[in-house]
Amino acid sequence: MTNASNQAELADLVVARPEGLYCPPGDFYIDPWQPVERAVITHAHSDHARFGHRHYLASKAGANVLLSRLAGITLQTLAYGERLDIGGTTVSLHPAGHVLGSAQLRIEHKGRVWVASGDYKLDPDPTCEAFEPVRCDTFITESTFGLPIYRWDAPQTVFDGVDSWWRHNAAEGRASVLFCYSFGKAQRVLASVDAGIGPIFCHGAVEPLNRAYRDAGVRLPPVRPVSEIPAKDKAVFRHALIVAPPSAQGSAWLKRFGDYSDAFASGWMRLRGARRRRGVDRGFVLSDHADWPSLQTAIQATGAERVIVTHGSVEPMVRWLREQGLEAGAFETQYGDDNAAGDP
């Protein structure tokens, strides 16, 4: 075999290009940020799934949400674990535990296996399939919360706190407005709070995603759009939980609730002063990304000897990986700006 052939055999299965992360032997891109011929999409958050590609491949579980956000695209889907030959590669999608339909992409080529994680978490979530460790030679990981300060409490502890806050407000005749991202976080909150405390309403930006989740078989409690209630009828909201996107904060829309308490659900609430900077009454530390210990657990479970970090706390994660004796590097990407403020 010639030197040129040896180099071709050992060439990286994924490289960074101006359009996004590219798989040369398969001739496809992973979550590209510029228009391409063929895109494999790990999940439907807007920093990973964008308009303009000619062909899309994504998980069957996430099709409803993806089509609700990118109407009219040419979409092919795969069930989790289903294998597909693309060019000289065999690919499959595996649960990432991030949001409904989120997937890790496994790429196999001439005996080598790479996995691109997209975004992921290990905590239990009733609205999506749990993260599945996938053995590989090279693992491409996110590192949104890749610092030791980021350690999440058990999800049930967080939701008990949300319920307690909502219950107290209801007893005082005060509406409870919870700001969280419309796709993923909002549905996780809806599926996990105690719907017996009072009625639940949603902002207009949240309800289309609720429908997509329900169409995919995810159980959510009865929810009414805020827009169904006449603007002057504030009494309806006195015992209610209202789920709204961060963009609604500080808007005139909030006046329709009369007396209310507000809160923000985000992994960034772990930082001292984050609640004060957000200007809300309460902060709940709830993330759809892996915390520091979970990132370590997930990476170790892959058995990968090489790890490439795509976004978040890149330098600290690369440094930690090298300290563990792994080959580590980074790809510069445009991930992490969903909803104009990341998707924590």
How many runs of DSSP E, i.e. beta strands?
A: 19
**CATH topology label of the largest domain:** Metallo-beta-lactamase, Chain A
- The assigned structural class equals alpha/beta
Enumerate how many helices there are, as a single number. Answer: 8
InterPro entries: MBL (IPR050698), RibonucZ/Hydroxyglut_hydro (IPR036866), Xnuc_lig_assoc (IPR026360)
Protein name: Ligase-associated DNA damage response exonuclease
Organism: Paraburkholderia polaris
EC number: 3.1.-.-
Describe the model.
With 344 residues, the chain is of the alpha/beta class. The chain has 2 domains: 9-149 and 288-340, 4-Layer Sandwich (Metallo-beta-lactamase, Chain A), CATH 3.60.15; 155-284, Rossmann fold (3-Layer(aba) Sandwich). It contains 8 helices and 19 strands. The chain has helices at 3-10, 63-69, 155-171, 185-192, 207-215, 274-278, 292-302, 314-323, and strands spanning 15-17, 20-23, 28-30, 38-40, 55-59, 75-78, 83-86, 89-95, 103-109, 112-116, 138-143, 175-179, 200-202, 224-225, 241-244, 260-265, 282-284, 306-312, 327-330. A 7-stranded mixed sheet has the order 7-8-9-10-11-18-19, with helices on one face. The protein has a 6-stranded mixed sheet with strand order 1-2-3-4-5-6, with no helix packed on it. A hairpin with a 4-residue loop joins β2 (20-23) and β3. The longest helix has 17 residues, at 155-171. The radius of gyration is 21 Å and the shape is globular. Mean pLDDT is 94; it is low at 1-7 and 338-343. This is Ligase-associated DNA damage response exonuclease. It is an enzyme of class 3 (hydrolase). Its EC number is 3.1.-.-. It comes from Paraburkholderia polaris. Keywords: Exonuclease, Hydrolase, Ligase, Nuclease.
